[in-house]
Design goal:
- With 285 residues, the protein is an alpha/beta fold.
- Helix content is 40%, strand content 15%.
- A 6-stranded parallel β-sheet has the order 5-4-6-7-8-9.
- β8, α7 and β9 form a beta-alpha-beta unit.
- The relative contact order is 0.16.
Length: 285
């Protein structure tokens, strides 16, 4: 049995734009059922979605019990307007608007809040991001406001400084977390905050021709070394493949991620991947 702790049911692992287009006139139940079936056939029994702006994960949560899958979702992710995040969620300009989005998510059945505080990896240039992270003040406010509303926070975050600020602000889980340095990894372990390093969206690019393999390999190797260090510090590491991302199909992507985690030396008894573990971590649920 496997647990997938970072997925996007709106995506298909092949073509994001085409996958989203299926839902332009309302959620396409057929597509959602196809992905749930893929998870079921791969032995996935728990899915934590990262959200979307089309209510796809809401329907997936309703349908998941038919496939023997426990499902939780933030409904949509939240990002500061002008920064990365529109691919999976909704924007805000003011703190009043941000609070309004949190209240909306709660009303729509969100199990937690998902925030976006940095850019993506620049897959063509190892060690680089598409944009720098938000300010520490903004990150702290986003997490504090969500906590005041009784909601746990899952954060899309890359870059050493941004990850450190996010951990210091009390985030409940850290997603991706590329380029963390030793001091930040020590903080991660000390705070006992689960980290989902999402290897598959990087490693599965090797050989596809979309980006230089040399640069992709460098990013993958850097993340493996950081997870190895985190393991030595007894940090909490979780299985989340970013299923639905390019070349990370539902079901198969989860199994790929498991193999990358084993390659980085993560023992099974240290691996966060079940609903019970997630709910204990997200103690505000």
């Amino acid at each position: 049995m496997l647990g997938e702790c970072h997925a996007h049911m709106i995506m298909d692992g092949v073509n994001y734009k085409a996958a989203v287009a299926l839902h332009k006139n309302g959620v396409c139940e057929k597509a959602v059922r196809r992905h749930l079936k893929e998870c079921q056939e791969a032995g996935v029994r728990f899915v934590r979605d990262g959200g979307d702006a089309k209510e796809v994960s809401k329907l997936a949560k309703d349908l998941a019990p038919e496939y023997g899958i426990e499902y939780c979702t933030p409904v949509f992710a939240i990002h500061k307007r002008g920064h990365y995040g529109g691919i999976v969620g909704l924007p805000f300009d003011t703190w009043e608007e941000y609070l309004g989005l949190i209240k909306r998510a709660k009303e729509e059945g969100a199990d937690f809040i998902k925030i976006m505080v940095s850019g993506l990896l620049d897959f063509a240039h190892a060690g680089m991001l598409t944009e720098e992270g938000l300010s520490g003040e903004d990150i702290h406010s986003m997490i504090a406001i969500a906590h005041e509303e009784g909601m746990a926070v899952m954060a899309h975050c890359n870059g050493d400084e941004t990850c450190r600020q996010t951990l210091e602000a009390g985030v409940d889980s850290l997603e991706h977390g590329f380029f963390m340095e030793e001091e930040t990894l020590c903080l991660l372990a000390e705070r006992k905050i689960p980290w989902f390093p999402t290897f598959a969206p990087v490693g599965n690019l090797l050989g596809c021709g979309r980006f230089p393999d040399e640069e992709v390999q460098k990013n993958l190797d850097m993340q493996i070394r950081r997870v190895e260090k985190a393991v030595s510090l007894h940090a909490r590491i979780g299985l989340g493949s970013d299923a639905g991302a390019y070349l990370v199909p539902h079901g198969k992507g989860t199994r790929d991620e498991y193999r990358y985690l084993k390659r980085a030396g993560v023992p099974d008894d240290m691996l966060y991947q079940t609903e019970d573990q997630i709910r204990k971590v997200f103690r505000r649920l």
